[in-house]
Design a protein that fits this description.
The protein has about 80 residues and is mainly beta. It has one helix and five strands; from the N terminus they run E-E-E-E-E-H. A hairpin with a 4-residue loop joins strand 3 and strand 4.
Length: about 80
Amino acid sequence: MPTARIPLPSSLPPMGAGQLRPSRSLMVCLTCQHFEHTLSEAGVTQPACAYHQQLLPQGSHLDHRCHQWMRRLEREIGWCPEGA
């Protein structure tokens, strides 16, 4: 099941404070299947969530997660399963 691509960051709303919860494990946004980066118009990298279609607050992708966290599947299905 492919993940939907994130639209331009100017159209994405920021994620609300109550959507993310602190995590002290490897279950953080950075290790989630839905985690992506976008570029702002100024060329600044911004973390984003493809599932929520929202921008993540800077730094929160390292120590927070939401209840929709899903383990990355690259090890099980490979980096480019559509090319197989």
